[in-house]
Amino acid sequence: MLTLSGVGKRYPTGDRAxxxxxxxxxxxxxLALIGPxxxxxxxxxxxxxRLVEPSEGRIALExxxxxxxxGAKLRQARRAMGMxxxxxxxxxxxxxxxNVLSGQLGYVGFWRSFLRRYPAPAVAExxxxxxxxxxxxxxxxxxxxxxxxxxxRVGIARAxxxxxxxLLVDEPTASLDPKTSRQIMRLIRELCxxxxxxxxxxxxxxxxxxxxADRIVGLRAGRIVFDGKPQALTAEILTTIYGEEEWDTRVxxxxxxxxxxxxxxxxxxxxx
Length: 272
Ligand SMILES: Nc1ncnc2c1ncn2[C@@H]1O[C@H](COP(=O)(O)OP(=O)(O)OP(=O)(O)O)[C@@H](O)[C@H]1O
Ligand SMILES: [Mg+2]
Description:
This protein is an alpha/beta fold and 272 residues long. It has twelve helices and ten strands. It has helices at 41-48, 71-78, 96-101, 105-108, 110-114, 120-132, 148-161, 178-195, 206-212, 235-242, 247-254, 264-267, and strands at 2-10, 16-25, 30-34, 56-61, 64-65, 81-85, 166-170, 198-202, 215-220, 223-228. The strands form two sheets. The protein has a six-stranded mixed beta sheet with strand order 6-7-8-3-9-10, sandwiched between helices. A four-stranded antiparallel beta sheet has the order 2-1-4-5, covered by helices on one side. Helix 6 packs across helix 7 (148-161) and helix 7 (148-161) packs parallel to helix 8. The longest helix is centred in the last third of the chain and has 18 residues, at 178-195. The chain is globular, with a radius of gyration of 19 Å. It starts with a strand and ends in a 5-residue tail after the last helix. It binds adenosine-5'-triphosphate (ATP) and magnesium ion (MG). The site of adenosine-5'-triphosphate (ATP) has 12 residues, from helix 1.
């Protein structure tokens, strides 16, 4: 449903962030994008919804070439893509409900949303979504009164309100504790299954990526260096992606055990 062919990005500063990206994402697939800081993960996600303009290559969503669109057509295409950010991007002084409804901006027009008049079906759907993400008790709370995990749930509900077919998720768990991180990843995973949504999730936590994604793509210096199933990610491949690091001994040392052998999923302590 999403295809990137020959996509590259060079920023005006001269930094080359992506080179020759070939990626095809089928409907309903949850893809985790991993790689060291600066590898180009955020750039790739932003090229897809054209928050960043790719320097070369083509990106097509359900047969529609995004890289050729502009103006109203681009805005319309963007509605098929829900964005979820690490920093939650909520308006602090607005309520949970209003934050979710603000995801409708593209639909209801600037003035209606400025006056906070939303169509009844959107409000009903926002209620349903808030219930689904476990926030029905907090609908009237101000966004700044929420915990990090709750804020992320609001971000998820808001992204889903526009009924997207693709989710673009940039480090959803970066500032959450390990348990909340798992809950958020599980929620995203379940919602993708329920709604047949495809997702690209940038994530630093390799164990979480392995546990919750169907497929893992490893980026290094703007190039894809691994594309495969979570089980196929060995310590050797992690070294290719992240550079030299003694994955086995390092993780085992922390656990105060004698080093075990690959696969990395075991040494990284992932429940399989
Ligand atoms: N707006 C920008 N202008 C110039 N260079 C940029 C810009 N955004 C990113 N870059 C550069 O592009 C490269 C890729 O950055 P990007 O933010 O995509 O990496 P990332 O994999 O998301 O990293 P992180 O894990 O730290 O979020 C880096 O070298 C970065 O310095
Ligand atoms: Mg990033």
